[in-house]
Amino acid sequence: MIIILTFALTTILNAVLSEDAEFCQRHGFDSTLLECETCGIVEGVTSSSALTDICHRCCNTFEIVKAKKAVFSYDFQRISAELAEFIQNEAESIVNLHIRPSRGTVATLTLLDDKGRDIESFPVNEWNSKDIKDFLKDKLEK
């Protein structure tokens, strides 16, 4: 009995969610990507309360998790001159960025949580210093 009830509730919920997604798409919104902050912008550029109401119906609040620390691992012989200059002249100014020379390593940025566990790693050998600074500004807790 419980299995049947669970299945029925799941089916109804999926139908409602699917209907909501279709509603949003019909009105020009993608509910899987629309952040509720964006609805504030919509309110500022339109006088249509109906449009802003639809926006709020379709939006989501996404939790943005920032890393506590980042580690830049690299092999000095395998990085570009620009990355070498970044390490020597700019990296120290970025709070919670730790530089780790490592022989044979492709330049990599690793984001860590508050317990020092890897969240995600990114090969950055082809990045320039602006890319790295912008990325860390978005991803690294201050």
From TrEMBL:
Molecular function in Gene Ontology: oxidoreductase activity
Domain annotation Selenoprotein F/M: ranges: 82-140
Span of the signal peptide: 1-18
Chief place where the protein resides: endoplasmic reticulum
GO cellular component: endoplasmic reticulum lumen
Keyword field: Endoplasmic reticulum, Selenocysteine, Signal
Protein origin, superkingdom: Eukaryota
Subcellular location: Endoplasmic reticulum lumen
Record carries keyword Signal: yes
Presence of the UniProt keyword Protein biosynthesis in the record: no
Protein family per UniProt: Belongs to the selenoprotein M/F family.
Protein name: Selenoprotein F
Organism of this sequence: Streblomastix strix
